[in-house]
Every structure is written in C-alpha cells, then in structure tokens.
Amino acid sequence: MIFRDELDHLARKYNDRLQIFYFYSQEKTSNTFFQGRLDDKKLSLIINQILHLDDTDEESTIWDAVDEVLICGKGEMIKTLANACHHHGIPKKNIHFELFEAFNDDIYPVEKNSRSLKI
Questions:
Q1: I need a labelling partner for 114 at 20 to 30 A (CA). Which of 11, 49, 59, 85 fits?
Q2: Where in the numbering of this chain does the Oxidoreductase FAD/NAD(P)-binding domain appear (predicted)?
Q3: Does residue 113 lie in a domain region?
C-alpha cells in the first residue's frame, strides 16, 4: 500500500488525535469488518462500531467531532460515501474527494428548483 509507512508514522506521532483503519476491498483480512467495498451500510457500521464512543462525553460519539472528510477512490464509491457522509451530518462543502478514474455523473443528486413562475 502506498504511503502506509508514512501514515503509520503519523498515527504514532499524533496518537492522541489520529487513528487510521485500513479497509481492503479485495484482500482477505483477519477481521472481516475491514474487508469488502466501502458503501453506505459499511459507513454506518464504522460510525456505530469504531467511532461509537467519545471518552470525554458519554452522550457524544467521535463521529460528532468529525468536520472534514476525504474520500479517495472510484467514482461510484465516492458518490455513495459522499452522500452517506452528508446524510450523517457532514456539510457537502466539507466532503472532499479525489477520483481515481473519469466519472461523468454528479456526486450529489441535482436539486430541482421547486419554485414555479406564475403569471
């Protein structure tokens, strides 16, 4: 994996505020939770199982403190995850992504103008 050593170094250096979890779409892992494609259901599981507790506040989750998201990958995955992140409270302007391929669809559904012109 590209930059794994660098990412692991940053996680050790900033262990009080940075955790990295590796998910593999094709490789087998010892924990199947980290195996398979990321989608809206997997994101919900991540929020509920990894980001479930905030040690400083019993009522909050770690996800509540997330204010920026970066998604890298293929277009359909980015579209699915970006919409799921937005559905879970992250503003669209704070969801950043890098496409690994050409993608011609809109990432977010196009909102139709609900106002009609009356004459």
A1: 85
A2: 2-80
A3: no
